[in-house]
């Protein structure tokens, strides 16, 4: 049964295996809260309180400032304060996130977003403290937005399936590898401009997206720490069904049906592999299952 986009958003936190909609929902909720706070505080003449509150969510370039609020390396990637900023970020996250979710599954998509955001924030901080251009502004520079995580997912999708085509307004069909290359070049060209912090974060996120897929193909999942933390919070806030033990025993049948070379990889087999990844992690796959997954993603 088809479920609409807004229904998915509304039910994002009551369903499993839908990291894409959880990430979208968190960004929308934070944006709505900041928007309401800005309107009411500005109308009451307390706009300075809003900007002070927002700064506790933003990633600082100064290491000494960052030490006092280290949580910002996570919160900044879910916060926006401009409509078109969040609009374009979430559109690209949705379009390219659907591809990543199809080929790698929900957990890997969450890994890419979080690791891309972390890489983007750290790259922004490092360059701002090393490049002489930013020496006068490093102590007061702050950054927010999902762009680094989004770039990570965009580049990862283009690395996984470069010849997938999107139909763009006015341009027609364009392969996503060209879309990714274009946006990375734009970020690089603007990395010394007025929005240098954001553009540097884009580059850090893009590099992580490429590296993640390359390492995944080599059998190494850089997102294992993210998955460990994610599973901890899932267990902490979810009620475990009584039938879970029985269900998990049935899933061990994966080992009794190894895939054979020469067989045609079907969507049913890919779904089974993705289910196995969601349940036990990428490292539980056999070499043949990993080969099948990536062969299928490059069709």
TrEMBL record:
GO terms for MF: serine-type endopeptidase activity
A Pfam match: DUF6576
Domain of life: Bacteria
Regions crossing the membrane: 20-43, 83-100, 112-130, 142-161, 168-190
Keywords: Membrane, Transmembrane, Transmembrane helix
Broad class of the protein's primary localization: membrane
Protein name: Rhomboid family protein
Annotated source species: Anditalea andensis
């Amino acid at each position: 049964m088809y479920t609409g986009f807004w229904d998915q958003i509304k039910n994002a936190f009551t369903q499993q295996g839908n990291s894409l909609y959880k990430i979208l929902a968190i960004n929308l909720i934070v944006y709505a809260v900041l928007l309401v706070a800005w309107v009411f505080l500005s109308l009451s003449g307390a706009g300075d309180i809003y900007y002070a509150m927002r700064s506790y969510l933003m990633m600082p370039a100064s290491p000494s400032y960052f030490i006092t609020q280290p949580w910002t390396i996570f919160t900044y990637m879910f916060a926006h304060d401009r409509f078109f900023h969040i609009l374009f970020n979430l559109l690209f996250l949705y379009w390219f996130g659907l591809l990543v979710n199809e080929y790698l599954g929900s957990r890997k998509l969450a890994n890419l977003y979080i690791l891309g955001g972390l890489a983007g924030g750290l790259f922004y901080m490092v360059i701002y403290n090393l490049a002489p251009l930013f020496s006068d502004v490093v102590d007061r520079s702050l950054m927010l937005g999902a762009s680094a995580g989004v770039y990570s997912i965009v580049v990862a999708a283009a690395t996984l399936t470069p010849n997938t085509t999107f139909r763009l307004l006015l341009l027609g069909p364009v392969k996503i590898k060209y879309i990714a290359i274009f946006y990375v070049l734009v970020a690089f060209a603007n990395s010394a401009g007025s929005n240098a912090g954001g553009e540097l974060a884009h580059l850090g996120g893009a590099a992580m997206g490429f590296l993640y897929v390359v390492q995944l193909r080599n059998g190494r999942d850089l997102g294992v720490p993210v998955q460990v933390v994610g599973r901890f919070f899932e267990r902490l806030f979810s009620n475990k069904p009584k039938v879970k033990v029985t269900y998990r025993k049935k899933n061990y049948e994966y080992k009794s049906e190894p895939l054979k070379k020469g067989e045609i990889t079907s969507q049913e087999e890919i779904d089974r592999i993705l289910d196995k990844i969601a349940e036990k992690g990428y490292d539980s796959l056999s070499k043949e299952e990993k080969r099948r997954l990536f062969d299928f993603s490059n069709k």
